[in-house]
Write a structure and sequence with these properties.
The complex is a heterodimer. By secondary structure, chain A is α/β, with parallel strands linked by helices. Helices cover 21% and strands 30% of the residues of chain A. Chain B is globular. The chains are: A alpha/beta, B mainly beta.
Chain lengths: 261, 201
């Protein structure tokens, strides 16, 4: 408890100096869904990250050709390994390598952590409202892991939209965290499937759902929304229309306009 | 030979001249959206564009006035710090040089500011000399709200976070004040050709 309380106050500053490329060694792979895997890296000298930050990853071919991408960090600040949870995109260049080619023991070049806005430090006492579409859950999972690690009593709700039951990332861990009785409630919705026995929602996020799930605007929750662009646009516009303060809503989008969630 | 990622070949894009793509970037054909918060909905009837700060007589245009100014149509490559580049994007709007005509200022720096509270800092030299525009059309159409419409800033020689969406004005300043992303880990200038992504780059 004392350790947890101490960690909760740890200030991890955003580094002012150059972010150097460094090596992580893949130590463990956990397949989360058919398309999504979590990669756990040992990174010597890793100075930690805030929940919500990302890293840049760089791949180099034998002729010197390089490709760089950014990935959200899934691990909490004081987790022992740096975790990335990566969705394999069929037409992607880097994700099919990370999910498919990279093996335990391989090294990966990365630099970070990056970003000082879409982060939850674990301080303050306003309730937390997290809204995720698909692999947008990754930086929000870092926040929930951080919240659990520091034994935070900040009330939190996660609304997580997935296509099908099999696509739900972190399903068991979320179920465990949500059952811990520490003030976290996890809500799921499926947009492409209505499995028998499913107790969550089975539709796209809408106002009625947010009215049931979201903290009232009087409680002025800290809101983090992450997912494909159309998903984030829809969820954030609904909350603004419901009277939530736009500046309390932090968003992170991926992909282009007009894509599907 | 330095480090090689075992088993990585990559998707070469032989059709793209590498001289047009800054280091660490890849070319997309779609148009990704990056915004730190909800998309604001801007009413052009009440919209104004201002130049203020280190200026004797601040300037202000209504939408009607700004859209009546001589406009340029420019085709430029854009580079987002999140790694995508989009080539040959066409925008229409008013050059900052046109807006700055007759302005005498002791400022070397500016803060470009937007609806929703977004700011970004730019050296005055980076937005004058035919390098920056206040734009209201993309590909011949009004700019979509998600992409910063109805009116956004456009300074394509720097990373695209400098091209502030939902722009409302330019504050002229004697000193440099880091803007929103520049206070949150991102480079103060953001030149993609020098890969100035983050603090310390």
């Amino acid at each position: 408890m004392a350790r947890a309380a101490l960690l909760g106050r740890l200030e991890i500053p955003i580094p002012r100096g150059p972010l150097r490329w460094q090596f992580g060694t893949l130590a463990e792979v956990v397949q989360e869904t058919p398309r999504v895997s979590s990669l756990f890296f040992d990174v010597p000298g890793w100075e930690g990250n805030l929940a919500g930050q990302h890293v840049d990853v760089r791949l180099t071919a034998d002729d010197g050709y390089q490709a760089e991408r950014s990935y959200s960090i899934a691990s909490a600040p004081d987790d022992p390994r740096l975790a990335l949870t990566v969705e394999r995109l069929d037409d992607g260049e880097v994700s099919p390598y990370l999910v498919g080619e990279l093996r335990v023991g391989d090294r990966l070049e990365l630099r970070g952590p990056i970003g000082g806005f879409f982060v939850w430090r674990g301080d303050g006492d306003v309730p937390l409202l997290l809204i995720a579409g698909g692999s947008g859950v990754v930086p929000l999972m870092a926040m929930l892991r951080h919240r659990a690690n520091i034994e935070s009593s900040v009330p939190a709700r996660l609304l997580f939209s997935s296509r099908t039951q099999a696509d739900v990332i972190y399903r068991e861990e979320l179920s465990r965290l949500g059952a811990a009785g520490d003030g976290l409630t996890v809500f799921h919705t499926l947009t492409r499937e209505k499995p028998s026995g499913w107790t969550g929602y089975t539709r796209r996020v809408d106002e009625a759902m947010l009215k049931e799930v979201a903290w009232s605007k009087r409680e002025n929750p800290a809101v983090f929304i992450c997912g494909p662009t159309p998903f984030v646009e829809a969820a954030s516009q609904l909350l603004v229309a419901m009277g939530y303060e736009p500046r309390s809503i932090k968003t992170e989008r991926f992909g282009a306009t007009g894509g599907t969630a | 030979m330095g480090f090689v990622s075992r088993g990585f070949r990559g998707k070469r894009r032989d059709n793209v001249s590498s001289s047009r793509v800054p280091p660490g970037q890849y070319v997309v054909t779609d148009f990704p959206v990056l915004s730190a918060g909800p998309t604001p909905h801007v009413n052009l009837d009440q919209w104004t564009f201002s130049i203020e700060g280190e200026i004797d007589e601040p300037k202000k245009w209504s939408w009607k006035e700004l859209s009546a100014l001589p406009a340029d149509t420019v085709t430029k490559d854009i580079h987002c710090v999140t790694k995508w580049s989009k080539l040959d994007t066409t925008w229409k709007g008013v050059s900052v040089d046109t807006l700055m005509e007759g302005v005498d200022t002791a400022a070397d720096f500016t803060t470009v500011y937007s609806d929703g509270g977004y700011t970004t800092n730019l050296a005055l030299d980076d937005i004058t000399g035919n390098k920056a525009w206040v734009v209201y059309e993309f590909d011949g159409q009004p700019i979509e709200p998600q992409h910063g419409g109805p009116v956004r800033f456009f300074v394509p020689h720097l990373y695209f976070w400098k091209s502030a969406k939902w722009v409302r004005g330019i504050r002229l300043q004697k000193e440099e004040h880091p803007g929103f992303w520049e206070s949150n880990g991102y480079h103060i200038r953001g030149d993609p050709w020098r890969e100035q992504r983050y603090w310390g780059d």
